[in-house]
Design brief:
The structure holds two protein chains of two kinds. By secondary structure, chain A is of the alpha/beta class. By secondary structure, chain B is mainly α. Classes of the chains: A alpha/beta, B mainly alpha.
């Protein structure tokens, strides 16, 4: 019997990046395959290729033994591939039954046969052990239940291969346990499951096999029997790019930034940062290591005034900084390379020149009172484009015309231009080409050498190891250890990241 | 790398060409479709267009009439443009304009003891203020209550129409008059003509230039543009989304109200509900035809003002119903909004001009 899904040697290149590099994997009926990898590792490109939405440059994808045709998404779905997206595709004001039957309603004449539909949903929910109230309205249901409806929706179409895209990202711990149980039952009933996640314990709990992607490459295939969470963590963040960074000994100065007892909620209103204390000295780079989703994002956003601080405070040179006001925090002296550069870092339809002064647009020399000084803006743009090696035909092209690496250089250039005492860089090299990575690294070190206190948050352990003077390891919303980077043992850090004590 | 750079350059050039051609081709395409309809009715499109444009632009009286029609249209187009720049779709220009028209009419007939210059300023100010008031309601609801401006401005249109109808037929009604209308404004408050040019037209052009300058060269303009393009990045950069949205809507309404005031003080000399119908909605077409650029609004408004001015003549000469102009405008709107034409130019950045209003 042929495998449900068979991916052989799939390669997909985008300008400047190899999104998928010779990836092969198979999924058989009744097994759970975890696809593990940080954002930007190539998971979504691979999935798009499976659905025929992206044409691989080389390689082949077979479903149930027959190759798929590029562009034939409907054909892929008809062959029993279903996906539960991270963001649900449900109609909030309709009932569970209505949502599940949507697009394939049982009819009686011109009308929907509501009774048949309801009975069908009840039977379906019984068969797979997924309890739902068929008459509940979606928007009244908790998120975990909504997800169940999504899964039922997929199952109703006789799904043989079910892809779950970060299904636990929005769930509470109890809901996660329930979901993992559902996944096990589905696999028992013969459905092949691809579970995309970066939460290691879920993988350990439910997967039969684990496939790890990093930087577009398949870097490991293993099973929970053969490894542990620390092993997985290392595979995920392992030696992706050999980074050679020349840096001298840090001249560590006084404490500049102090984080005291910080507690922060995530988007689900769950406590994600559970009391963090940190101090950042001038002239050092403090790396914050951790598997994604352990509170790093929330920590950075809270420090930079972009997310509400539930409790605790952030002191800059002893002075408390304002909560929920990114500009005031910046003015106080904290520059920030945001994790989501497209959303927060850039206005992509503005010129590079305007983006380079985005948070100083109303200050001298870029504005004289009410009037913007366009020649000062242009002069700054031309100089910065040259200094930061931003590859563009003109500083007045829109930011959207730049590659990812050059966009990031624009953000980094802007944040470094004022020589503020603190720089917080969140995933500064994600999705960035190797040349730009090196450049950005050197800029971070240069800022440190000029006396800035730099906090580097990265999912790449190698980046942390090669740049940091001290390393704080974050796990489960807490800083579990602060180490000197000299002689730091990556295996030990990997175990700390996985939440293991020793 | 150099190949990439050339590609980027090429795209930019294409976009520039496309962005100017789109409105022109939209107008021509709309006229072509309208010609086919005229032919179906057995009418002569060449004669019709000839008489339409001769009436509008062929004589000094025609030009004066066209510019008179164009004056409030420039202002309503600017009102829509300001909203769109901040990412707001102000459908309520009609209501804001009516409110300004009535307010300035009242100031024009009821306040009689003011020196002429001050009287004109006060009457214009009343128009601005009451338009801004209506706009500010929608702005407040959007910024601080999260209610979509398309919904609120449409509803405010109906509310304002009800209120001005009531005011014009009861408290402000011209005594001993069957029609629903206010008394005429006094002689000295009327906006004079400078040769062919209504003086209101200067006000409108001045405002267009001022808006162009403010949007392009001041920090206030930068705030509006930033919020319209990416409000998250704007917030990150220290621009208050709520404040900007509120003031964009307030000024948008104020400019619309000024449009109504200029119409009252320069053309109609009184408020009569039927006089101002459609001016606000034409503003949407004009804003999009002018590529949401304050200076682009002026030719757009003159063209549409000309069509409005010449419609009667077209009916007289070619037997074409004046409603054809409405049809033309509707089709122009369709062509400029639909990405049909810009796609024809393989416009890479298919940024919709009304982007964001569905958020």
């Amino acid at each position: 019997m042929s495998a449900l899904l068979e991916v052989t040697g799939v390669t997909k290149r985008y300008p400047g990046v190899v999104a998928n590099d010779n990836i092969s994997l198979t999924v058989n009926a009744g097994e759970v395959v975890a696809l593990l990898g940080e954002n930007g590792a190539g998971k979504s490109t691979l999935l798009k290729a499976v659905f025929g939405l992206v044409k691989p440059d080389s390689g082949e994808i077979k479903i149930g033994g027959t190759p798929i045709v590029f562009g034939d998404t409907a054909g892929v779905i008809a062959r029993g591939v279903g996906m539960v997206h991270q963001h649900f595709q449900l109609v909030p004001v309709m009932t569970v039954t209505e949502n599940i039957i949507l697009g394939g309603e049982p009819k009686r004449g011109l009308f929907i046969n509501k009774k048949a539909a309801r009975d069908e949903i009840l039977a379906l929910s019984k068969r797979y052990g997924l309890e739902v109230d068929p008459d509940a309205v979606i928007e009244d249901l908790p998120v975990g239940m909504q997800q169940r409806v999504e899964i039922l929706k997929a199952l109703r179409k006789d799904v043989k291969l079910l892809i779950l895209d970060e299904p636990t990202a929005v769930l509470t711990p109890q809901e996660i346990d329930e979901l993992l149980e559902v996944i096990r039952n589905l696999a028992k009933s013969g459905v092949g499951i691809v579970l995309i996640t970066h939460k290691l314990h879920e993988v350990m709990a439910v997967a039969d096999r684990v496939v790890v992607l990093r930087g577009g490459k398949l870097v490991g295939a293993t099973s929970p029997k053969e490894t542990d969470e620390a092993g997985l963590a290392q595979m995920m963040v392992g030696r992706s790019v050999v980074l050679q960074v020349n840096r001298t000994e840090a001249k560590r100065g006084a404490v500049v930034l102090e984080v005291k007892g910080l507690q922060v909620l995530d988007d689900r209103k769950l406590l994600m940062v559970k009391g963090v204390d940190l101090s950042l000295h001038s002239g050092e780079i403090l790396g914050v290591a951790g598997v994604e989703g352990n509170g790093q994002r929330e920590l950075v956003e809270a420090i930079c005034g972009m997310r509400n601080r539930e409790s605790g405070e952030v002191l800059l040179k002893g002075v408390p900084t304002k909560n929920l006001n990114p500009h005031a925090v910046h003015e106080a002296g904290i520059s920030h390379v945001p994790e989501d550069r497209e959303k927060h870092g850039l206005i992509s339809t503005y010129s590079i020149a305007d983006n380079l002064i985005l948070n100083q647009f109303d200050q001298a020399p870029f504005a004289k009172g009410w009037i913007r000084d366009l020649s000062a803006i242009a002069k700054n743009a031309v100089e910065t484009v040259a200094k930061f090696d931003i590859r563009t035909p003109s500083a007045f092209n829109t930011a959207s015309s730049l590659s990812g690496g050059n966009k990031q250089k624009v953000v980094v250039a802007r944040e470094l231009s004022e020589d503020l005492p603190v720089l917080i860089a969140a995933q500064p090299t994600r999705g960035v080409d190797v040349g730009s990575i090196e450049f950005i690294h050197n800029q971070l070190i240069a800022a440190r050498d000029k006396g800035a206190a730099v906090m580097l948050v990265s999912a790449e352990l190698d980046e942390i190891l090669s740049l940091s003077d001290r390393i704080a390891v974050m796990s489960g919303g807490k800083i579990v250890a602060v180490l000197d980077s000299k002689g730091a043992d990556r295996n030990y850090i990997g175990r700390l990241m996985a939440g293991l004590k020793e | 790398m150099s190949a990439l750079i050339n590609e980027v350059k090429g795209k930019k050039q294409k976009y520039d060409v496309g962005s100017w051609l789109v409105p022109i081709i939209s107008v021509l395409a709309a006229m072509l479709v309208a010609s086919l309809l005229m032919l179906l009715q057995g009418l002569d499109p060449v004669l019709a267009y000839n008489s339409l444009f001769t009436a509008a632009f062929g004589s000094s009286e025609g030009i004066a009439a066209t510019l008179g029609k164009a004056t409030p249209l420039v202002l309503s187009g600017l009102a829509v443009t300001l909203g769109l720049r901040a990412g707001l779709f102000n459908i309520g220009v009609q209501g804001q304009l009516l409110s300004g028209a009535l307010a300035s009419a009242w100031a024009g007939y009821a306040l009689t003891n003011l020196p002429p210059f001050i009287h004109v300023s006060v009457a214009l100010g009343f128009g601005f203020f009451f338009g801004a008031l209506v706009g500010a309601i929608a702005g407040y609801l959007k910024a601080f209550r999260g209610v979509h401006e398309v919904i609120t401005t449409i509803m405010l249109n109906s509310i304002v129409m009800g209120i001005v109808d009531y005011l014009a037929s009861h408290p402000f009604k011209e005594p001993d008059q069957a029609l629903t209308r206010t008394p005429q404004i006094i002689e000295s408050v009327r906006l004079p003509m400078f040769g062919l040019l209504p003086s209101g037209f200067f006000v409108a052009v001045f405002l267009a230039c001022a808006m162009w300058w403010i949007l392009g060269y001041t920090t206030t303009g930068f705030r509006f543009n930033s919020v319209g393009r990416n409000r998250f990045a704007a917030w990150y950069a220290g621009i208050s989304y709520k404040r900007t949205i509120f003031f964009a809507m307030l000024f948008s309404g104020g400019i619309a109200g000024l449009g109504g005031a200029v119409e009252t003080l320069g053309i109609t000399y009184r408020f009569e509900p039927a006089f101002n119908l459609g001016l606000g909605f034409d503003g949407i077409t004009i804003a999009l035809l002018g590529r949401v650029h304050p200076i682009g609004i002026i030719p757009g408004a003159i063209l549409i003002g000309g069509m409005r001015a010449g419609a009667a003549n077209m009916q007289f000469d070619a037997g074409v119903a004046p409603e054809l102009v409405d049809l033309l405008l509707a089709m122009i709107l369709l062509f400029v909004t639909a990405p049909l034409i810009s796609r024809f130019f393989k416009n890479s950045s298919n940024r919709s001009l009304t982007g964001g209003w569905g958020n």
